[in-house]
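Final report, closing paragraph on structural work. Over the funding period we assembled a curated collection of sequence-structure pairs, and we close with a single example.
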Amino acid sequence: MSYIQDVYELVVKKNPAEPEFHQAVREVLDALEPVMERHPEYEENRILERLTEPERVVMFRVPWLDDKGRVHINRGFRIEFNSAIGPYKGGLRFHPTVYLGILKFLAFEQVFKNSLTTLPMGGGKGGSDFDPKGKSSNEVMRFCQSFMTELSRHIGPNTDVPAGDIGVGGREIGFLFGQYKRLRNEFTGVLTGKALNWGGSLIRPEATGYGAVYFAQNMLATKGENFEGKVCTVSGSGNVAQYTIEKLIELGAKPVSVSDSNGSIHDPDGIDTEKLAYIMELKNVYRSRIKEYADRYKNATYHEGKRPWFIPCDCAFPSATQNEINGEDAALLVKQGCTLVAEGANMPTDPDGVDAFLANNVLFGPGKAANAGGVAVSGLEMAQNAQHTRWPREEVDRRLQEIMSAVHAQAADAAADYGKPGNYVVGANIAGFVKVADAMLDQGVV
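Its predicted structure, as stored:
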């Protein structure tokens, strides 16, 4: 039995009933066999065992009062996974599905994603099983203040810098930051995703979606192609999906879908800037269901309970949540002509789906590479906060494009170096891992 298999079995044994974490670890370990053969020092120093064990797991009770004065209890988490190359960095997710295994998977992925950005950031993730949907702003504020009262003990601008994720947008970041400032009596860059007038960065809301498209643009360039005229499916209708669509429109593509947890919209006429503005109003202002899009635009059709992978396309951008593309979905996408997939969400393709894409030579950008734009601009926000300045939009966008090109180059070069040219899954995992592993070796057994 190989060293890698031993490590994986140890992870499963020590972390039972956490399938998403097992899946994330398996994907990384599967790519590392040739690395371990070339670098025996990693095994000698038990790098894999150390890397799959979080440096710190914080779990706490979050009591809060609703508008009728009733007491509610939620559970809060922060997984500080690895700080070998910088302070822990990663989002906070507020959603009923949040539990330890989900956050460990996200934090583990974040380690390698942050490594690929070329910025000095470690990996972390956190959140709560609190659901902001259906809550008043005052209820969300009281929850955020209770959550931050405990979390503030464990974070700081040089220790751990959280950001937003699912269920944590500008409103929630504001409430969290205000409570941190009150408790610590300091105005620091301890959270990213802040509003522009109190320390936020331009392009931050757009960054994950824009970055996924920039990464895909780099993949297309290896084939001498661009986005002009390409039909693109996008899942989700939140921040990532919205700005993926915006950038696709700008580059001449034809996005034809959006979705939410209830179903999907297919608009064969394409989503233009006017339709995108309506989607943004529908989801960001009114927090309505996406099916209302089909009521306004009569050529569009709504498909209850379906994700958009049944729609013929050239390129697909899964931008909703984990494991939204399975093996059957991937096979259908390939059959209908899809030649590129760039993951805007975290691990939206399950292992069978990934295998199907790779077997059919689809240009496949895994989340830890393709959606690194969000955390990259979070890192740029940290840099601006440290300098007490704000860069113009063009400067941030230029740096984001440079970072996504660098992420692509690292993944492509590592894949080629280890005999898997064009395999961005292998390349991203190896490139992200080696940087972190070497830093861990330099810093001793800690």
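The chain has a mean pLDDT of 97. The chain has 18 helices and 13 strands. We thank the funder for supporting this effort.
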